[in-house]
Amino acid sequence: MKSTLLVGALLTAMTTTGAFAQAIKLADVAELSGGGATVGTNWKNGIDLAIEEINAKGGILGRKLEVTHADSQSNPGVARAQVQKALDAEPYVLLGPGYSGSVKVTAPLAAEAGIAQIMGGEAAELTQAGNKFLFRTSFGQQSSMPKVAKYIHDDMKAKSVAVVWVNNDFGRGGRDVVIRELERLGSKVVADLSTEAGQADFAADVGKIKAANPDAVFVYLNEEESARILKELKRQGVTAPLMGETTLIGQKVIELAGDSANGARGHVGLTTDAPVDLIKGFRDRFSKKYNYVPDHNGLKGYLAVYMVKATTEKMGKVDSKAFADSLHGLTIRAADEPGILMDVSFDANGDIDRQSFLVEVVEGKQVVKQVLPKVK
Amino acid sequence: MSNLFDLLVAGLATGAIYALVAVGFTLLWQTSQTINFAQGEFVMLPAFLMLAAMHVGAPFWLAIILGILLSMILLGLAFKLLLVDPMMRHGVLPLAIATMALAIGIKEAVKQFFSAEASPFPSIVPTGDVSVLGHAVSLQSIGVLVVAILAVFGLTTLLNRTSLGHQMQAAAQNPTVARIIGVPVERMILLTFLINAFLVALASLLITPIYLAKFSSGEVLGQAAFIAAIVGGFNQVRGAIAGGLLIGVLDNLAAAYVSTQYRAAVPMIFLIVVILFRPQGLLGRAEERTV
């Protein structure tokens, strides 16, 4: 009797181990603490929600998804160490990080390991280095900034613009493209202000903006700093219209800045307030699970997992080496894979093409003012 | 010129908060030779205590009172009894290092039990502008300045005009003689810890609406206030006040006229200059201890 029980237990253990071996392993490295905690937490929660949904429906090709989350502490050095550790465990796909600086130092590691990396960084240069394993979940700056500059020049009719940017890879990349585009269109940059990541006091920077008296202010900082400068802009009575990107008018920024966020406008590649039914559904499920409304980073994390699902199902096999090749040039339609939320195409560099939105904060809510179609 | 006026007002408002924190540094040093490197985290924590009170349903005014009371218990009483008293007998340096460890502990605890993300914090001063000398000045800046000045005025009145203040001064200047003439020295030292806790809670209430409530927000404040205390004179309350205001203004002017990247370096350079040419601080006195 004892031996029968022992054999039974062993068989159970083997079967269980076998089941785990069958799971598709994903590795996530994100900004779970430090300056990018808002980014990383949303990203992580989006991933977890997508995995829960996919597993509830039987997984991918009959295999469950598993993910490990590691904290980069919003520090590129830590991110590199965490990515190396994650790659040593041979994941199917690497997810994250969200900060461009962290992506920049980790992308060569993933490429060397031949593992596809789906990340949240938006710096223009990331996908221009010939890395065949790197994929975006949102627009790169080379796609979004020309739209922003055009809006400032054509719709805001701004002849003079103050540009405030955060002094890191993300901020510098956006600043370079937007200033080039503004000058090409004929808008003069009257203040070019660099700020520091994690900066708490923006009184002097806003003082400089007031002194420059621009027709519009372009703000390109991380979320928490965006909230602080919005408060300071209001405190010092700056009335020039404010334009930014997703990081200026995200949910977390609105929550932190309160009334000061009202009137700010931004070009948004992804927003949970988009007039798209599938996105509304995502927003409801996310809010129900986590008790807060996600920002675009929650969407990015969610989409990253559905990119894995759609690509793998298209290949018909779980093959990490062939994954990147299959995703290049792929168009995923929301009609075929509702989890992808909007039709999206990937080019040979891993950049995406998708419709986007022009949003204004009205009474603490994002209101979509214009829908910009896919480029191709 | 208008820009300079705005910068001065903003600098004074920030500097007034630095002054509150710097005064706390001075008080603790004077009465118990405690260099509290967790002072920045002491400013960060009360905001979270107030937020926690609001999360369980307390209105803002009640959360402020609870936050200040809890701060005085945790950052005043418990800090003295559980960390300063046991470490003091080992000297100033081990105690200073223990406060560094405490700073890390507080930060990580807030990150763990509250959030690593920033949280909004309501302001006690309404938004809006008033006209001062023809310039629009935000009510928030004025409110911060007024509250900080009132706090400092109240403290100096307590120290200089009341029997309790005189006892505190005596306990700081010469504890042995103070004991002989009947001053309850231990109680006076505890009182300075409670006053420090009150001041940091007040600073927290004033600065957090601007900086947001975040586990790491004490780092900048602690460093600025420490520099302010040394620049002004570590052994003088009035020195700490002057140092705080000076560093606040200097920081803003440096950010505007030097560079945002090097703004943090300017107060440091000023600190080095002061140490080289006037080591007792601008208003401090050599070889003297008084509160």
Please describe what this structure looks like.
The complex is a heterodimer of chains A (376) and B (291). Chain A has 13 helices and 15 strands. Chain A is α/β, with parallel strands linked by helices and 376 residues long. Chain A folds into 2 domains: 2-139 and 276-355, Response regulator (Rossmann fold); 144-268, Response regulator (Rossmann fold), CATH 3.40.50. Chain A has a 7-stranded mixed sheet, sandwiched between helices. In chain A, a hairpin with a 2-residue loop joins β14 and β15 (365-372). Chain A starts with a helix and ends with a strand. Residues 5-21 of chain A have low confidence and may be disordered. Chain B has 291 residues and is mostly helical. Chain B has one domain (2-277): ABC transporter involved in vitamin B12 uptake, BtuC (Orthogonal Bundle), CATH 1.10.3470. Chain B has 11 helices and 2 strands; from the N terminus they run ααααββααααααα. In chain B, strands 1-2 form a two-stranded antiparallel ribbon. In chain B, a hairpin with a 2-residue loop joins β1 (129-132) and β2 (135-138). In chain B, α2 (39-55) packs across α8, α2 (39-55) packs across α9 (218-232) and α3 (60-88) runs antiparallel to α4 (92-113). Chain B is globular. The model of chain B has no long low-confidence stretch (mean pLDDT 89). The A-B interface holds A 32-34, 37-38, 41, 167, 193-196, 198-201, 203-205, 207-208, 210-211, 224, 227-228, 231-232, 234-237, 252, 255-260 and B 2-3, 6-7, 10-11, 14, 111, 115-120, 127, 129, 136, 138, 140-141, 209-212, 214, 216-217, 220, 251-256, 260-261, 263. Chain B: It is found in: Cell membrane. Chain B: Pfam families: BPD_transp_2. Chain B: It is a multi-pass membrane protein. Chain B: Keywords: Amino-acid transport, Cell membrane, Membrane, Transmembrane, Transmembrane helix, Transport. Chain B: This is Branched-chain amino acid ABC transporter permease.
